[in-house]
Amino acid sequence: MKPKRYILDSSLRDGEQMPGVCFTREQKLKIAAILDDNGVHQIEAGVPATSKQEKENIIKIIENRKHAIISVWGRMSVSDIEHAIDCRPDIIHISVPVSYPHIYVKLRKNKEWVITELYACLGLIDKCKIALSVGFEDAFRSEPAFMKTVANILLDFGVKRIRLSDTVGVAMPTRVRNVLSEFSEGLTGKCELGFHAHNDLGLAVANTVEAAKCGCLYADVTVGGIGERAGNCDLAQLVSSSSNIFDWGISTQTAIKIQDEIFGLTALKI
User: Fold this and answer.
1) End-to-end Cα separation, the chain, in angstroms
2) Beta bridge partners of 162
């Protein structure tokens, strides 16, 4: 029996960050319906903090869904969390910077600031009783010790799902394997891991397959691999390349059908 793994489709969030890609309200609702109707496990429906219109779109997606889990994305910010709570999704996902370049150079902050902000966000979400997923931003250029520190804080708050993100697309399969092995050591199955790949080196699919082999239950994908810069892990390519190893909950034929329907709807050409 093949191990079970789960698809998290981020076409409506990370996919729309691709230059030239901008979905209308009607297209977003239809894309979510196509993903839901065809058995995609989880849909990352957008970023509530973006605008009032985005929040309304997400709420409508939640109202119309039949089976899929609906999550929303936010920065490690109390304001972003408040916008996310307004939508009442199944899961709120927040992105936590964990690498030196992101904390000290990009944000011009320090590790103490990260911990303080994280506690503020955790306290707010704990009150609203919505499930939380946390993404480690730029995880593959970070210090393992700091990631474990953050992970232990999350576990103390009852957070069971952590997503490691190759935010700038620098990882290779060997790096993915080594980081995941070191990170998961000591966690002893206390949390469920996810993986978010970028395709800057053309390795998003290969890295995602390797992450699944290392025990990551959740794989972030987009239709056609759309996404910021060089894109994300391609849904159809992931399923077709590894369905002999894992049960993704959908077949290769279904993944291709999803792509064809969404491409036909949006006139995307990848």
Assistant:
1) 34
2) 134, 193
